[in-house]
Each structure stands twice: as C-alpha cells, then as structure tokens.
Amino acid sequence: MTVYKIKSKSRSWDGEPIGILILDAAYPCVPGNVGNATTYDFPVRYKEVKGASIERLLNERDPKLLEPFLEGARELEAEGVGAITGACGFMALFQPQVAAAVSIPVFLSSLLQIPFVQMTLKPGQKIGVVSANAKVLTDEHFRNVGVDPHNTPMVVYGMEEQYEFNSSVLEEKGTLDSAKVEEELCGVVSRMRRENPEVAAIVLECSDLPPYAHAVHELTGLPVFDFTTMIRHVQNALVPKRYDRGYM
Hints:
This protein has nine helices and eight strands. By secondary structure, it is of the alpha/beta class. Helix 7 (178-195) packs parallel to helix 8.
C-alpha cells in the first residue's frame, strides 16, 4: 500500500509537476506551442504574467516586469508545481532573479540548453540559434542563461522579417497560417545553413516554433532543441520512470 502525504493545506489539487509562466499576449497557440496544453502528455499549470506583453518584454526590456514575474513564480510554487518554465526565450532577461526567488528549479528560456548543446560539438562546429527577433536578442539575455555570447560557437538568425510570423506573433493580428510559418522558418534555417555550413545543431529560442521542429529536422538532419525538449527533460527529471519490470 502506498501512503501519500499532503503537500499543502491551502489547495485541493495535485499532479501538475510543470508550471509555465506565459506572456500577456493574444495570438493562436497551435498544438506544439508551449502555450497549448495539448502539446504535453502530462499536466501543466499556466500562469499569465500580467502586463508582460511582447512589446514590453522583447522591445522595451522593461525592468518593471520583474515584480510580476516574481509574483507569478511564487504563485506557481505555492500551487504545488515542481519546476517553473517559461513560454518565451526572452524571459532569459529575468532568469537569475526568478531562480533566486523560489525554492524550486526555474527554466525560463530555451536558450538554457545552449551550454549543454555546445559540449556535444566537436571543434569547428557551431550552434544555429533561431530567434523570434534576433535584432532585440542581447548579450544580457545570453549571459543570464550561462552563455558567453562572444566565446560560444553560435550564429543567431531571426524571424522578425518573415511576414506571417511577424504579423501573427509579434504584431498579434489575430490569425496564424501555420503552414506559412513553417515555410518561413525552413527558409530562414536554409539560409543559415547555406551561410554557415558548420552549424551542427539548432536551438529554437521562440516558444512559437516547436510545432515546426520536425520540419527543421527533416530539412537539415540536425538535432533540434526547443522549449518542448527542455520542458520534457525537466518533466522526466521530476517524474522519473520506474523500471521495475522488463525483459532481461
């Protein structure tokens, strides 16, 4: 018989190991997107960061957003999640502060995977990073996730000049042509590979790009890391599989 112990008397539910801080934005989150709960085969708990618009986080890098990020993280911890992840790579802006504010692991940006990926490459190979907007991705974002932007073998390309992605996600027009975004992403990756044939792994910064990771892999044959690879990694660490039966 298994005996379970209550974690908190302040809530009446359990079973959500992953908490996700999500932007205060409005556009279609298609399956595969971090913001679509059907992306996962395990339960997740969302927490919208009030006021954290695309404009304020990406373009303005508004330091006043720190407090609502901290508030959201503390609420998720109180609600019983085992780890907190983000839903925008630019949340790297607050990775150190949020991690210091709670007692559970924090993984706000898919860019956290870059040091891991770097250690798998041989000399001369590079990581190809695809960002929602490479023009506003700064050294600070990279440093906050443990990446030395000037000594890491990587190239950074952006989706900001792709019409469908820009108008659907960055400008929040209200609709999204998923097939067109996939085509645009593959075009950006093709150009990146053409200009940098030494790219041997790809990291997708943006939480809107995981639905198209399969297409990028089919196009390049390279490993593709994104928010979902990170979140599933964290989930597996929180809920390890028990191997008590099997073929020997």
